[in-house]
Amino acid sequence: MKHCKCRLARKTHRICFEIAVFGAASVGKTSLIRRSFVGEFFEEYTPTIEDYYSHEIQRLGGVTVLNTTDCAGCFQFPAMRKLTIQKAAGIVLVFSLDSEFSFRELQRLLDEIIKVRSEEGVPIVVVGNKKDLNVREVTEQDVAELIRLYSSDKFQLRYVETSAKDNLNVSEIFSQLLTFLMPEAPPKKKSKFKIFNFKAKEKCNVM
Ligand SMILES: Nc1nc2c(ncn2[C@@H]2O[C@H](COP(=O)(O)OP(=O)(O)OP(=O)(O)O)[C@@H](O)[C@H]2O)c(=O)[nH]1
Ligand SMILES: [Mg+2]
After folding, report:
1. Is this prediction's pTM over 0.90?
2. Which residues does a 6 A CB cutoff place in the pocket of ligand 1?
3. 106 falls in which pLDDT band (50, 70, 90)?
């Protein structure tokens, strides 16, 4: 768990978490983040190089900030990916239910995460997206087997099936992560969202 004091904090308690979202190209990582943080969805596809979002959740007694890295499905440098895995307090791994290839890519990413974080572990939420298509190349049994194989004391895995398009279960992704990161204080239903490039606009000192 990473706690930080931000310049904007003043009197309220503020906790920041670094979150990383990985997955094969075009599985819907950006769509899920934008659906979750700003409530919008776009049909057109624009590949991500790397983007950052800062998402605030108001809680009793303070604010939780999810500083989220939206990683590239293609064109990601291995060294950058390793750095992002190293600093993440929680990881979201997305595949598309209609793409067996993206599920295999997710397993490859899981192997890398487990190697990089072998010492301290990290909580992971696995997301099967594009449920609205009703085309399945990945069965529930495939996913159950994967979760069983990779779960351990250090690596706790949860699974959510979503549709960024239909806004199905999208809010579950980050609330599941928060149950790992802040088990004593489950997120309140009502939350206030802000979106901006935190690198440019907010100074956040991770301690
Ligand atoms: N039907 C359907 N389409 C989706 C869904 N989520 C995303 N898409 C579409 O899939 C395409 C890719 O979505 P992105 O969110 O850009 O995918 P990405 O994983 O961020 O892709 P990269 O940035 O290249 O890694 C876009 O055309 C989206 O509109 C979904 O839940 N259902
Ligand atoms: Mg993207």
Report:
1. no
2. 23, 25-31, 42-45, 47-48, 72-73, 129-130, 132-133, 163-165
3. very high
